[in-house]
Amino acid sequence: MNKVKLITDSCCSFSPEELKELDIDYIAMDITINGTSFNSFDVPEKDPEKFYDMLEKAEHCSTSCINTFAFTEMFEKYVNAGYDVMYIGLSGGMSCTNNNAKLVASDVNERFGERVFVADSLTGSYGVALMLLGAKRLMEEGKSAKQICEALDKNGLRVYSIFIPGDLKFLRRSGRINRFAASIGSMLKIAPVITANEKGELKLFSKCLGRKKALETIKKYILENADLTSADKIYIGHTGQKQEAEDLAAFVKNNSKNKDITIGYIDYTMGCNCGPKTLAIFGYLK
User: N or C: which terminal CB in the chain sees fewer CB atoms within 10 Å?
Assistant: First the structure.
């Protein structure tokens, strides 16, 4: 059995340093802010608090999917080095990146044999991070790339993600909701709670009158749906809502046997889509 190389993208909310420590390679997406494009790991502003302050004032921001050339270069690099490749990144329901990875995997496998495997996480940000940690555990158990893919594909780990965006205009810009819905939500001070459907597409879970109600909705969702006893990891991600993140972590700790709760900034790629002042939690379903 060949060695397995894990590959992801910059939507996993791990830093390049963390990915290096985990021995996971990655392809970074590009983000464009006010007409200037950057590699998402190489933006001029490294401080996330300052970055999201800047993003809040930006007139325009967008992200681009990973193209087939980048995937071909990465996959062939490791196949030629004797590895089988396991790629897991942003949900196929949120980006064409996953489909591009599958197209390249099919081509590489036709030329080299079955060597590259692509799982659809059906999630993003720290949800992908949880899937990557799951893949690492399976690798340590001696599973092949194919076996890992079969276990992970279509969110086989039952990872949940639920979040409150700071401003609907960012989801509207990224095409996640339409302009009319964004304007109505802003005018009525609606705080939407958003999760993902069975295709990994963003869906409205609840419309709440105010952020306080939205936070209570998330807490209720966690109590009713999350695995708070045996799950080994929970992530709380945010784009500038430190106090809310800490309060949510305290709530989870008070209602959970799981004490391994990590608070962190959502990566810049995902942050450009959900916007500043977003709060999210990622864990495992019952």
Answer: N
